[in-house]
């Protein structure tokens, strides 16, 4: 009998990996926007056609890439962000897997334009299904533009599995909100089918929340600030009377990364206990800053779940500081009265 095991060709391996990283157009939006942030962009534009099914383009004014790096960026496990296994436990960037561009290029048509500040000319590369079609020297502004067209063109099953444009657009807007909330100091704009959906100037956190969720939000925000040896908390919770039927205004960011944490969510709910009706959900927009060495982000490809070293302590600090903030807000009218 002959041996039967073979290594998969790169383009097949990339397509398999893509299945994990890219579930829908919104996943591409997330990866491209995070790359723009890691490139120190100060302004990021997202351009979408047909809820991302036809086009997803992200344009940034970040540091750009050399011609060689631009070519390498589409290889799997190609990253400028970590060098060794130790770096995995002290992450300061959104990306580190070096998988996003390789995965996206495996299942779409991609056009990259990029230029570093000091280079006279930039690089343009087009790819289709992992294959480089053209590479040229071009005139292009500083920064990077990546256009992703015809997502899942070579995986009809995946393409058919996509939901209606309304649903896919909703997912894209959710990702856009998360990234924009995590980085109020960066300007963001979004365009869908040629019209402007969001235009968010760089600002502070309160202003960013208000710009996204509307002017009425301003009056309902109660600041939460706390600093302990292991955790810094900053942000806002909504006043209890503004609690919503949906969980659409619940955001945790850990070191500027949006995360889902039922456990920490429970800490907030318990701080609101007795203040909101059963079945309504308090709003919160909270940034937690912890030592990168005390968390593990590498448990899921989309990185929305993380593991904390000392979850119980975080829970206790979070709960008590939210309670404290709500308490201050509750006694405020009494103090006013005394004047
Ligand atoms: P990762 O972000 O995990 O490193 P990606 O596949 O997303 O992996 O990107 C690969 C590499 O390409 C990055 O490490 C970075 O060096 C480069 N890159 C990607 N997007 C940009 C961008 N918008 N600006 C500058 N460099 C970029
Ligand atoms: Mg990345």
From TrEMBL:
The keyword DNA damage appears for this protein: yes
GO cellular component, one term: mismatch repair complex
Gene Ontology MF term list: ATP binding; ATP hydrolysis activity; ATP-dependent DNA damage sensor activity; mismatched DNA binding
GO biological process, one term: mismatch repair
Keywords: DNA damage, DNA repair
Source superkingdom: Bacteria
Domain DNA mismatch repair protein S5: 209-327
Function noted in UniProt: This protein is involved in the repair of mismatches in DNA. It is required for dam-dependent methyl-directed DNA mismatch repair. May act as a 'molecular matchmaker', a protein that promotes the formation of a stable complex between two or more DNA-binding proteins in an ATP-dependent manner without itself being part of a final effector complex.
Recorded family membership: Belongs to the DNA mismatch repair MutL/HexB family.
Protein known as: DNA mismatch repair protein MutL
Organism: Ichthyenterobacterium magnum
Lineage: Bacteria, Pseudomonadati, Bacteroidota, Flavobacteriia, Flavobacteriales
């Amino acid at each position: 009998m002959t041996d039967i095991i073979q290594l998969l060709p790169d383009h097949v391996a990339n397509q398999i990996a893509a299945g994990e990283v890219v579930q829908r157009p919104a996943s591409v939006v997330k990866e491209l926007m995070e790359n723009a942030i890691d490139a120190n962009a100060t302004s990021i534009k997202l351009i979408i056609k047909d809820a991302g099914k036809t086009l997803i383009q992200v344009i940034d004014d970040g540091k750009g890439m050399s011609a060689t790096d631009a070519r390498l960026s589409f290889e799997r496990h190609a990253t400028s962000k970590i060098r060794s296994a130790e770096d995995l436990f002290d992450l300061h960037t959104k990306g580190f897997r070096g998988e996003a561009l390789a995965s996206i290029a495996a299942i779409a048509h991609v056009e990259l334009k990029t230029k570093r500040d000091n280079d006279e000319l930039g690089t343009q590369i087009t790819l289709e299904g992992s294959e480089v079609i053209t590479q040229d020297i071009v005139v292009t502004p500083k920064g990077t533009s990546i256009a992703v067209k015809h997502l899942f063109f070579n995986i009809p099953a995946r393409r058919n599995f996509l939901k209606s444009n309304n649903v896919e657009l909703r997912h894209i807007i959710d990702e856009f909100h998360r990234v924009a909330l995590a980085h109020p100091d960066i300007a963001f704009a979004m365009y869908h089918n040629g019209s402007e959906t969001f235009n968010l100037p760089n600002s502070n956190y309160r202003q960013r929340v208000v710009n996204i969720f509307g002017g009425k939000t301003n009056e309902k925000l109660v600041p939460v600030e706390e600093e302990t040896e292991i955790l810094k908390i900053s942000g806002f919770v909504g006043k209890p009377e503004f609690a919503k039927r949906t969980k659409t205004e619940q955001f945790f960011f850990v070191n500027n990364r949006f995360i889902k944490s039922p456990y920490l969510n429970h800490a907030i709910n318990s701080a609101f206990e007795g203040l909101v009706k059963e079945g309504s959900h308090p709003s919160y927009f909270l940034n937690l800053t912890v030592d990168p060495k005390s968390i593990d982000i590498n448990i899921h490809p989309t990185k929305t779940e993380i593991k904390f070293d000392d979850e119980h302590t975080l829970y206790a600090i979070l709960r008590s500081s939210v309670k404290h903030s709500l308490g201050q807000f509750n006694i405020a009218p009494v103090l006013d009265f005394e004047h």
